[in-house]
Amino acid sequence: MATTRRVSRVAELIKREVSQMLLSGIKDDRVGTGMVSVTDVDVSGDLQHAKIYVSIYGTDEAKAETMAGLKSATGYVRSELGARVRLRRTPEVVFVEDRSIERGNKVLSLLNQIQNNRPKENQVPDDSTDEDDDFPD
To answer: φ and ψ at 64, to 5 degrees?
Structure first.
């Protein structure tokens, strides 16, 4: 069992290398349909499995195509990781779509919508004005 420090170092290394592969290494046209970025890598304690979380910007169709392209490229990604990262065993690679950015944007838009629909008397006044100068500068 590897230490947590080693696991996190291996995860960061895999994240960096897979990001480089997404930029220049993977030749599958389906991967280029949506803008893809690696958001996180989760490596198991024994360094045998790696979940690579990717955020895909685009339509639902582009996201599905990109995930299909990434799934078909797992063998290539694993072999390239084996060549680039010196480990006793190269971890099994699984790509997982990360929708946290979408959920965050949805929550922010809902909060903005609530703020805009709030009656004027219930809104908190803006504190950016210097109306009350109780304290000297």
So the answer is: -65, -40
Task: Report the alpha-carbon distance of residue 96 to residue 52 in Å, rounded.
Answer: 6
Helix ranges restricted to H, the chain:
4-20, 60-72, 74-84, 100-117
Strand, coil or helix: 36? strand
Give the sign of the dihedral formed by CA 119, CA 123, CA 126, CA 131: positive
In this structure, are residues 56 and 34 in contact, taking their beta carbons and an 8 Å threshold? yes
How many residues are listed for the chain in this entry?
A: 137
pLDDT value at residue 42: 93
Distance CA 36, CA 63 (A): 9
- Retrieve residue 47's tokens: 């360094």
Quote the tokens at residue 76.
Answer: 């290539």
Task: Write out pLDDT tens, residues 92-122.
Answer: 999 999 888 888 888 988 898 888 888 766 5
- 23-27-31-37 Cα dihedral, nearest 10 degrees: -20
- Is 75 within 8 Å of 90 (Cβ atoms)? no
